[in-house]
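Re: that backbone. Tokens:
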């Protein structure tokens, strides 16, 4: 007698939930249709899924498969009496696409426009497909208990303590499949990227450059601005990673990010977003209104970048460099210290150079691809991006040299001539960064590289010493 091994899909065979994932794909690819999508629910969940599948096709080759379940299925397939079936509440077209891609299953069952295959409805569809034959069911959710009641064997994937106890009451042969899940807390910390908060030190730059950082009020407001931008930056990282799952999974390093790898549930990310935004709003409420305006501009610009602008050649680099400069504007608003035109000119060109480092690195590390995933660049663009980055970096040093000849420098420094020694240090650092970038020996993010690089810290110490002597 033939035996069937029936496997669930979402959070079981794959380490993600396709409904949430493809809904986010819809937001990025067809925002106007996305706005219509809540109204699909009026006609029921099955209709919602059907419409979503029409507008958001999946890429089965890029999904994060659970290796432990795949291995179990491969072992089951070696028994010629076993027939493998993929059964899911996801839309039928998605389920069939994944079944075809894996090559493991003889048949696939999914939700249609009229029916949502979950719980009892899924069992009915399974029984209709396999007849009176016995079956093993691989699932992960309490909704699967209705199916396990009728199965000859239970296979539970990462069951909770509560689900384990309910499975035990069924008194059936049971296998438990667990993967090496990392702590949700550790994954959340990794996702919000606190190491990137070092960029927010830029909010102190207007007060530091204007020699007004000694004020207690400026320090307090600077710290609040730092916290506000830390919440905002983490919000942006979470949002960007949720919207960029496909491109990240096709990237040599980004595929290991918590959402892309499937280690952190997408639903958790959707809960993180309002929490981080609330933290950002709280900090902004404690500071002058102008700060709230600048941080709002930062968030809106990042949303536009995530949805559209990152695919535009050079525009994306300009936007990335602006993210740094916006922190300086926000710091000025928080501390009420005006920004020097010299500082603004230098930062615009300097951070444009660093943004070019980031993009150049991504291009040269995609050597086997004609175009860069999720970007508008081609392999042939690497030399032009390099030229733009090196040129803007060197011109930013020229701004420093011109500043040394201005009247502004004499008003702030007792020994302004000593500031000249800062230029060879900056020339060394920016030149070294680009040489290492050309050798492909630098981190994707130049700021992360600088934080971990001992020579960069030595350069920073020298600059601090030079500015101290000049003062």
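Recovered sequence:
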């Amino acid at each position: 007698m033939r035996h069937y091994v029936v496997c669930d899909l979402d959070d079981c065979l794959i380490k993600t939930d396709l409904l949430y994932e493809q809904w986010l794909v819809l937001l990025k690819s067809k925002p106007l249709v996305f706005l219509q999508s809540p109204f699909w629910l009026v006609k029921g969940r099955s209709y919602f899924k059907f419409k979503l599948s029409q507008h958001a096709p999946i890429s089965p080759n890029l999904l994060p498969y659970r290796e432990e379940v795949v291995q179990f299925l491969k072992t089951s397939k070696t028994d010629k009496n076993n027939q493998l079936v993929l059964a899911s509440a996801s839309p039928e077209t998605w389920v069939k696409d994944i079944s075809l891609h894996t090559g493991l299953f003889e048949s696939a069952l999914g939700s249609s426009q009229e029916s949502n295959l979950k719980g009892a409805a899924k069992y009915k569809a399974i029984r209709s497909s396999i007849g009176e034959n016995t079956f093993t069911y691989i699932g992960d959710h309490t909704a699967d208990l209705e199916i396990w009641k009728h199965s000859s064997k239970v296979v539970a994937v990462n069951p909770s303590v509560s689900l384990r106890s309910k499975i035990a009451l069924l008194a059936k042969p049971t296998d438990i499949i667990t993967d090496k899940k990392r702590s949700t807390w550790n994954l959340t910390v990794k996702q919000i990227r606190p190491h990137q908060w070092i960029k927010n030190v830029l909010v102190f730059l207007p007060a530091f450059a204007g020699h007004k950082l000694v004020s207690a009020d400026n320090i307090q407001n600077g710290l609040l601005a730092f916290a506000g931008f830390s919440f905002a930056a983490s919000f942006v990282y979470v949002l960007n990673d949720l919207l960029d799952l496909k491109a990240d999974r096709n990237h040599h390093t980004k595929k290991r990010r918590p959402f892309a790898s499937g280690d952190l549930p997408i639903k958790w990310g959707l809960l993180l977003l309002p929490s981080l935004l609330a933290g950002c709003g709280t900090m902004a409420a404690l500071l002058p209104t102008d700060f709230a305006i600048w941080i709002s501009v930062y968030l809106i610009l990042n949303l536009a970048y995530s949805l559209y602008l990152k695919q535009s050649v050079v525009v994306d680099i300009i936007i990335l460099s602006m993210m740094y400069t916006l922190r300086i504007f926000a710091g000025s608003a928080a501390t009420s210290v005006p920004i020097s035109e010299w500082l603004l000119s230098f930062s615009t060109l300097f951070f444009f150079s660093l943004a070019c480092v980031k993009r150049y690195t991504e291009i040269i590390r995609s050597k086997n691809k004609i175009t860069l995933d999720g970007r508008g660049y081609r392999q042939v663009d690497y030399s032009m991006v390099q030229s733009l980055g090196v040129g803007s970096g060197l011109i930013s040093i020229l701004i420093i040299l011109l500043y040394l000849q201005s009247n502004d420098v004499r008003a702030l420094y007792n020994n302004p001539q000593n500031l000249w020694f800062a230029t060879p240090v900056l020339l060394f650092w920016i030149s070294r960064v680009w040489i290492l970038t050309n050798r492909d020996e630098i981190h994707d993010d130049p700021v992360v590289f600088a934080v971990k690089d001992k020579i960069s810290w030595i350069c920073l110490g020298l600059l601090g010493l030079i500015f101290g002597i000049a003062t």
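The longest strand covers residues 82-91. The CA atoms of residues 287 and 334 lie 6 Å apart.
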